[in-house]
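## retry 2 of 3
previous attempt timed out at serialization; input unchanged, resubmitting
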Amino acid sequence: MTEKTVIPFQGTPEQEAQLKEVIAKHHDQPGGLMPTLQEAQGIYGYLPIEVQKMIADGLGVSLSEVFGVATFYSQFSLTPKGKHRISVCLGTACYVKGSDKILEAVEAKLGIKSGECTADGMFSIDSCRCVGACGLAPVMLVDEDVYGKLKPDQVAKILDSYK
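## retry succeeded, writing output
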């Protein structure tokens, strides 16, 4: 088992001021937690525990309620995302053509697992179910760039081009 890299929270005073404005905007609104979380993720890129605590305190709800909503919906992330976001398609067409091997190659190259971010904040990896490019299977996205008909030995060169 590998030890998960923990990247410390590095929010700025400007981000905190933005979050406080968002909280104030949604404070008295029924169902205000959801839009607050969405806007907070837009500010920080993810929802670290420090941000969840600020939201809970600001909205007057429990931290467990904030955490429950943040973990229930897949649109929210509790871990930071890298400067370059990698997504490997594990949909049926891609999987049949070996996308699991592509994901393994990405993880091996970066030294992290799916759902994690490199310690330098450059890359994060996620998997997805379909990107709609089944004819190019297996497919990997780096930011908005689509790489298709991949072989595991091509992964390192592609990722090196983003450094």
